[in-house]
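Task card 7
Instruction: Convert sequence to structure tokens.
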Amino acid sequence: MIFAVHLSDGAIATPWLIGGFVGAAILLLIACFRLTEEWIPRIGVLSAAFFVASSLRIPFAIIPTSVHPILNGPVGVILGRRAPLAITIGLVLQYFLVAHGGLTTLGLNACIIGIPAVAAGWLYPVLRKAGMPTFLRGAILGGSAVAASAIIDYFVLLAGGKEDWIALARLVLVAHVPIVIVEGLLLGVIVQYVEKVKPELLRAQSATASAPGDVPREEAPTPPPRTTDNTRSSGDTGSSPPATSRAR
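Output:
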């Protein structure tokens, strides 16, 4: 059994399922606002990364179970408010291809994973402006995104579960402690590398706050100022040069 933050069908009460779809619809509307074609390849790549990572099983030595990576931190830092698009696509693929998660809980799962991702994307430029070292801010946001998803999942199981899921909910929290550490270190390494080789990849999501949908491009180099001919002699009074004498 995989103790992940993906809720399965039949475990959550109907009002919570409806609320999950409403919340997911709001996240997707915000993500799709002024979506341009430049974002499509990036969303596709991160959807695939999210899907593949969630298909991996990491054995948990303390208890007889396994967990899997989530990667909502990297998805959020790179995509910002558009992260729910990649996450929702990945969740749909997981349900239909590997029978992971649930169809009725699709909205809740999108909120549980997507909200921390959007928060990570919003906080990244804030921490950068605050002067936090690159690796540290990546590690904090990567680990915090997973921890936030596990905590939200915990409270949804307690408050909206059809049965008493308190033992399972606690187990979910404990099982994701290694994932918090691993994904924190992973995002720290990722952002440290990307900031060196392609920093605009991490600037695009923060720029959407002021101009949604616009992918910032590298600014064209400023042309050098035009110089004027100031080589006149010091005795020049500024009058026009003498006319050329006529040929006699």
